[in-house]
Amino acid sequence: MTSTNSETENKDVVETSEKNTNNSEKPSPTRSATTLDEPAFGWSAYAERVNGRFAMIGFIGILIIELLSKQTFLNWAGLFN
After folding, report:
1. 3 CA to centre of own chain
2. What residues make up the domain containing 16?
3. What pLDDT, in 10s, does the model give residues 28-75?
4. How many domains does the chain have?
């Protein structure tokens, strides 16, 4: 009987923990504020999203440099004369 009681208690604990994880809508502190993806190293959706955003910022920066200097970016940077 002791093993049956402990098995029943274990099932109750597992069911309770599953209910708690399913009902919580708040992301954990390690998650991003804008997505439910967890930050990870390597080829992950989160890393690709962040890299894409930085690439867009860099591209806009290059366009602004070209508009203000009236030169191509390569000429402005001294890479192509």
Report:
1. 44
2. 2-77
3. 556 666 667 677 777 888 888 889 999 999 999 999 999 999 999 999
4. 1
Among residues 38, 21, 40, the alpha carbon closest in space to that of 30 is found at 38
- Tokens matching residue 2: 């002791």
What is the rounded distance in angstroms from the CA atom of residue 78 to the CA atom of residue 34? Answer: 39
Q: How many residues does the chain have?
A: 81
CA dist 80 and 51 (Å) reads 27
Q: Which amino acid, 42?
A: G
pTM surpassing 0.70? no
Q: CA angle at residue 60 from 33 to 50, to 5 degrees? A: 30
